[in-house]
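Review form for a predicted model. The reviewer records the input and the model, then writes brief findings.
Reviewer: anonymous (R2)
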Amino acid sequence: MSARAGLAGIEELPSTLPIFPLAGALLLPRGRLPLNIFEPRYLAMVRDALASGRTIGMVQPLDPASREHEPAVYPVGCAGRITAFTENEDGRFQITLTGISRFRIREELARVTPYRKVVADYTEFADDLEPPPHAGDVNRNRLAPALRSYLELHGLSADWQAIEKAPAESLINALAMICPFTPPEKQALLEARDIADRADMMIALLEMAVAAPPGAPETKLQ
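Model under review:
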């Protein structure tokens, strides 16, 4: 199902959005992110979302090691719709968010709920509502060996036939979400201009990780 399903345009997306700050959790348009919800304020957020539009904004804390109750967050996140959920006997929720569109935080609202809400601006990400027209621009010939070396480095395996057949956007976004990149690297992937830029950035991250000797400090994207 297209992320545009039921939407005529970004003007139909909610202008105020509950946010869920979670380091290392990356949601991208049309991507699917499973979440286990157990903290009381976020249980309240999920219940409220299920009752009204099912939309939640995923954001990352600026400091992934922060233990603050309300950490400062990156200004760009991704709105997702709850497309599946299970409520356990102990009250926890297991949900799946399907990404709709990225957004920029314009303002954080005064607290009237246990969770945080922001004014979300989707204007610069209007193209997120449709699959990219130039997904074929992804350089698979460079991606495949970089990914293979990266997975071998981490002792991971992959279904290479499925990877070769996967549509470019689905492949790049899935890899961006599941590969163990650092939170700042995941944020950079989120904010990439388009799928081609995201693919180029991912290839660079994979190649830098493989090239770095064991124990070397992380190489950061400039």
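Findings: The helical segments are 40-51, 140-153, 160-165, 168-178, 183-191, 195-211.
Further findings: The chain has two domains: 10-129, 135-211.
Recommendation: see findings above.
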